[in-house]
């Protein structure tokens, strides 16, 4: 297998701590550094931050330059990006400029940024990649595997495709991300509160990469702009949530669609059904199992529906959602390092597997 690739984890929050565990378990990777933004974590062992119950001998640091100076083969970037998109893009572009490969969980628009970022920014990234040989891959579970590799693989069984619909159906009450839950979705806020996420064009910025990448994989050109549909409903009763309780009458459930059309006909649709309690809006689509999961529906010949559910060994679907997000970008590291440089999408990468991760016991 050769020498393991040297990897730095950038942030140790809800995704980053799982990335540390994933790198530690991966035979082709070696953790050499950890960046933290919180001074209280500075100097702490990565094993402690990842709650592994043992030390890894790698101490976290707030010193960005020291980690860059390590010249790792790859940075696994898991820092919160939803509320600092362009600052985060600047960080990622800087890593590529420094000749360091990156896999990242965000900003998710970089999954397929055409028609979202200005062409000059994309050319800047491409030029840096050509010059340094470093590659950037942004992925996860959603946006990511559940709505790029999974649906596109399913369409390989199609004779005719009328519509591809990718869905997340989930109860977010155990999802710990107060900024996303309260400020962005507006859960627990009055119904007249206007979260930024529901302003016109923002859904396209956030999830347009999903719809356009599937379209590219199917070799179709979508009408522009994409169409957005949002249905917001109040909570019928008080609900406990780890990110802030949701009182009756406040925003409790949201269903949205981002539709990619060809000549006015829906061809690629992203849909999210997000509840803060499983009993809310029973008439909306329900998950196949437990508190949530993903669904792919390919309408055509033949009709196909695939439900993808998951749950953690020590937690629910929200815990495993963080694990799968982390593992998608951890397991992609060798392929991204081997890529020629610049932005690398799911359409560019070879098959990524859990190579080397089968239990020994």
UniProtKB/TrEMBL annotation:
The lineage of its organism: Bacteria, Bacillati, Actinomycetota, Actinomycetes, Propionibacteriales. Residues 147-353 form the 2,4-diaminopentanoate dehydrogenase C-terminal domain. The keyword Translocase does not apply. The keyword Kinase applies. Gene3D superfamilies: NAD(P)-binding Rossmann-like Domain. Keywords: Kinase, Transferase. InterPro entries: DAP_DH_C, NAD(P)-bd_dom_sf. Pfam families: DAP_DH_C. It comes from Nocardioides conyzicola. It comes from the Bacteria. This is Diacylglycerol kinase. GO terms for molecular function: kinase activity.
